[in-house]
Amino acid sequence: MKKVILGLGSNRNYNGLTSLQILSKACASLSEILSFITLSSVYISKPMYYEKQDNFYNMALSGFLDDAILPEVLLEKIHLIEKEFGRNREKEIRNGPRSLDIDIEYIEGLSLNTENLKIPHPKIKERAFVLVPVLEILDKTADEKLMEEFSSYLQNLPDAKDLVKI
Description:
The structure is a single chain. The chain is an alpha+beta fold. It is built from 4 helices and 8 strands; from the N terminus they run βαβββαβββααβ. It has helices at 19-30, 71-84, 128-141, 144-154, and strands spanning 2-10, 35-39, 43-45, 56-65, 101-107, 112-113, 118-119, 164-165. The strands form 2 sheets. Strands 1, 2, 3, 4, 5 and 8 form a 6-stranded antiparallel beta sheet that branches. A hairpin with a 4-residue loop joins β6 and β7. α3 (128-141) runs antiparallel to α4 (144-154). The longest helix is centred in the middle third of the chain and has 14 residues, at 71-84. The mean pLDDT is 93.
């Protein structure tokens, strides 16, 4: 079993579900793939990269992945969950509004750089909306080495104070 950290975000309702409901249901779906899940609080953050959109609801999830499941298979399962909650990658604006976005931020002991998957996530160092909830769950799991690494990234981000915990 390998520790996995995912970042989740939503800023668009889908099929009568609010962003908060989508995040909750996505976590339930992810619990069918990962074991021993720990969830962060939900934070409201301003959009990055493409700013003409609503604020995001963001959170992190930590769990354990069976060694028999390859990272690419995990990514495929994540894409199916995103699609179930209204994500259509072919029609969306890059970094624009989405009903559900799930990123693989980290997989224990793995460094991967392929066209479709990069682990650890290459933009984690610039995203307070990922780091703050990740540090919250790492605190719960007492993963001091990762906490130290991710805390060092967060120190360089001025927008960390803009996150609102709900």
